[in-house]
Amino acid sequence: MKVRLSFIWAMLLVAAVFAYGIFKLTKIRDVARSGPRQEAFDYWEEAKKRDLRPGEFVLTDQAGNLFASSELRDKVWVLSTFFSTCPSHCLTINQTLAKLHLRPELHDITFLSVSCSPILDTPDVLREYATRFNADTRRWKFLTGDFAYILRQVAQPLHLIYENGNHNETAVVVGRDGRVRKYVNLLNAEEVDRMMAELPKLAAEVNADQSRSPASPAQSTPPRTAASSSP
Fold first, then answer.
1. Which of 62, 98, 159, 179 can pair with 142 through a Cys bridge, CB separation 3.0 to 4.6 Å?
2. Residues 6+ apart with CB under 8 A from 92
3. Within 10 A of 225 (CB to CB), how many other CB atoms are there?
4. 5-28 pLDDT, tens per residue?
């Protein structure tokens, strides 16, 4: 009798796990369908229409609007990568950015968070994600788009690891002259503090060369940190 009951409980457990798996797959499918599939939009063609400079890019923000990095010419901006279903490092990184982007002394700095899971991270998903951090989306934008486009036009020029659900915890600081000025490990409190102190100085600099291509190489090099990977 005990053996039979154990067998029944084991079968019920297997059935419950199976049902949960089906539920999760259904949720993922629904999330993917909750907004337009990013691959359906031709970002390459849109970039041509906008006559962007080398190093500039166009993506879709959390409101579903197109956002071009050309809007940040002669401004200081900070770019990092994440994905909304990441349960660990991304949360820590974005909690840090949530504090930084509201600091009064950083009001002239724009923060860009680019998804490395763009199919699932539709504008609707990103808009809800932004509310979790009380983000002022005028100063902190959450961006999505076509994976291949982001890899070629954003991650590779900035020397960032960019894979589906796999990225590094590095932020790229770009100065008013369009040059990469600094790479910062957002999980390192000392590096974040130094960046916070340096950003107002960068914003106060006079841009003597506004014709420079954006995100030109800087003297600093990206840190050789391991990539963050979460299920």
1. 62
2. 186, 187
3. 14
4. 555 555 555 454 344 444 443 444
